[in-house]
């Protein structure tokens, strides 16, 4: 899948004050509820890979900032992680790597780290390989479609292309599931865990939460009557962006149910909030994310 980064760069924040957008989020989300036609929903799903490839054709590596925060949020990604399976050097599987905004900051901080990274945009993977710090000794970048390729058990053979590397110690899913249709999220997650995550390894997860500022903007920005609306479902918090990529907004309980349904994982799922205040208007703006760290048990 493509690199489904938050827009803008996220960070862990403090709980929002009582006069924040959270207090009126339900009212905002109840407005502007026109839903896209079944044809547009189907087209959006069918053309997801093309939309991200077009995105990277337009922006290349200029749109997203490097993620220098991931090792602060997830101790498994630190240069000296507290525990590794089998005592081997750390190996990260970065799903939805985009142009390497997570990969290369981590490689710089951790000389022992090796990274498998994949994306369903061939153009994004090509940009990863063109990075000045790319080396096949430490980076294995490949094209992989989370929805289509999982049906053929393609992940395990891809990882086996680096036979001298230790097994994956951490699987990162950062702003990835939000760009996958709701009915594909559980099958994709289950396939990744079963095919790529050894016992003792860890999943780190971060994605959009319901009532995030980005979701509220879909409802405060009026769609033209002649155009297809952004909302893709009246059942799910699922939207189409202006560039035809998809965005899903999770509740904590939804993410917990997804991991519970996969089975064999234990850890914490939480909602984190970053609060910003517009000094001129006094408006409190919230970025909301669901974050999880789960270890695969016996």
TrEMBL record:
Transmembrane segments: none
Pfam families linked to this entry: Methyltransf_12
Start and end residues of each stretch annotated as Disordered: 1-23
MF (Gene Ontology): RNA methyltransferase activity; S-adenosylmethionine-dependent methyltransferase activity
GO BP annotations listed: methylation
Keyword RNA-binding applies: no
PANTHER family listed in its UniProt record: METHYLTRANSFERASE-RELATED, TRNA N(3)-METHYLCYTIDINE METHYLTRANSFERASE METTL6
Name of the protein this chain belongs to: tRNA N(3)-methylcytidine methyltransferase
Organism: Malassezia equina
């Amino acid at each position: 899948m493509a690199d489904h980064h938050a827009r803008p760069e996220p960070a862990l924040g403090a709980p929002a004050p009582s006069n924040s957008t959270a207090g009126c989020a339900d009212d905002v989300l109840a407005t502007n509820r026109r839903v896209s036609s079944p044809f547009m929903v189907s087209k959006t799903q069918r053309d997801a890979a093309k939309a991200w490839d077009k995105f990277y054709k337009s922006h290349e590596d200029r749109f997203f900032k490097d993620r220098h925060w991931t090792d602060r949020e997830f101790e498994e990604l630190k240069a000296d992680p507290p525990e590794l399976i089998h005592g081997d050097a750390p190996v990260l599987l970065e799903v939805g790597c985009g142009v390497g905004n997570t990969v290369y900051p981590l490689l710089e901080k951790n000389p022992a780290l090796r990274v498998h990274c994949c994306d369903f945009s061939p153009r994004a993977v090509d940009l990863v390989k063109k990075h000045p710090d790319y080396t096949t000794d430490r980076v294995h970048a490949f094209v992989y479609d989370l929805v289509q390729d999982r049906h053929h058990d393609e992940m395990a053979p891809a990882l086996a292309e680096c036979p001298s590397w230790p097994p994956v110690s951490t699987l990162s899913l950062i702003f990835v599931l939000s760009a996958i249709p709701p009915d594909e999220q559980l099958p994709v997650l289950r396939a990744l865990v079963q095919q790529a995550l050894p016992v003792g390894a860890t999943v780190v997860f971060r994605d959009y939460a319901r009532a995030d500022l980005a979701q509220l903007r879909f409802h405060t920005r009026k769609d033209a009557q002649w155009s297809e609306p952004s909302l893709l479902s009246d059942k799910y918090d699922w939207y189409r962006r202006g560039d035809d990529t998809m965005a899903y907004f999770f509740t904590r309980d939804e993410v917990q149910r997804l991991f519970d349904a996969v089975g064999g994982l234990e850890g914490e799922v939480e909602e984190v909030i970053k609060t910003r205040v517009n000094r001129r208007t006094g408006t409190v703006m919230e970025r909301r994310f669901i974050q999880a760290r789960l270890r695969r048990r016996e």
